[in-house]
Specification:
Length: about 100
């Protein structure tokens, strides 16, 4: 199992790097355009399924927690707030203003 995981990570690192593609001719340009369209035909349905799954799980979380918006966040650090572990930074109170009435 560990060997498979390492192989998948290495494959992702090697193949997942961005690369510059330049068309040398109109035919090559057409080939790149067809390749991009074909990639989108695979990517977009998968992304739609993942987004729909997030919608279902998020809705279920909202219903089961009585509409608690904070339940959507995982962990102690929130994307819209400064980290409490790093200490109180000057001006960090601006992040708390939107939760002033929701507590």
């Amino acid at each position: 199992m560990r060997r498979v995981l390492v192989a998948l990570v290495l494959l992702g690192v090697v193949l997942g790097r961005p690369a510059v593609l330049r068309a040398e001719s109109p035919a090559a340009e057409f080939g790149l355009a067809v390749g991009a369209a074909a990639g989108n035909l695979v990517y977009l349905p998968v992304k739609g399924i993942v987004a729909f799954g997030g919608l279902v799980l998020g809705s279920l979380t909202g219903v089961l927690t009585g509409g608690d918006v904070r339940a959507a966040y995982v962990g102690s650090d929130y994307a819209d707030q400064s980290s409490k572990a790093a200490g109180a930074a000057e001006g960090a109170g601006i992040y708390d203003i939107q939760y002033q009435y929701s507590r």
